[in-house]
Design a protein that fits this description.
alpha/beta; single chain
Length: 275
Amino acid sequence: MGFLWSAIDESNDRERNHAFVIAGWLSQQTIWTDVERHWQWRLDRDSIDYFKSSECLSLSKQFRRFRDEKAYPDGSGRKKADEVFDDLACILRSSDLIGFVLVIDLKDHRDSRKSSRTRSVLPRDPYLFAYQLLLVRIACEVAKMKKPETVAFLCDHHDKFKQLHAGYEALKKGNPNCAKFMGSLTEMCDQKSPAIQSADLLASVCQRSYVRLMRGDIVTAEFVAEVKAQVGRSVGVGLIDRHIIGLATKANLLKRGRPSTWSTSQLKMFDQAWT
């Protein structure tokens, strides 16, 4: 059995009012090597050490030079940063990567936690909940492949990663049908990993479009179409609202002293959430 690699990162709006978005790409190492080569080449063209969506959007740190009115007059710096963003998105659209995005509606998340039953399985911070759902989701899809392979997960360095890693074996035990495809779970600084940077871009695209959806500027179908148009048709988007959180709660409540994540409820949840 060979290996697949999945790089994962997250994004949320500054005030954390709208959505917590987690995104990941999945593919074989040979495809990742090609994507990372083109990615780094595009950054090198403008002497950018690494890509981070928040810095690109705010013209800070790696993108601060584009604020220089002398070098980039009449708003041309903003256009230049957008050009870098669009070129990187084009690399992803042109690749054979498979994308996964989960969007947690933070209002529904907060409202759902008013129930003591939900609070028993749904933490205040959506980080752990979102990552565990996405890890299982990716493994579920790999299990359906004609020739499934073990997935090595790579996540951005985060102060909460230790908690995620500490519960990884328990997550696999609660998901026996896909556990054999859940390989290593490691962290790396995003500045050193074009793969994680690509997941950051995917999460950012989805997060910005979801804010537009929440404001009523677009409907759900347009939201999904926007994401796919920017980063590729092979991206699946899961919307985790109040109803889906309810199904996830039911699937993860302790049964005989252990969670039952891989259950009929969990599979139903995935089918209903994914577009």
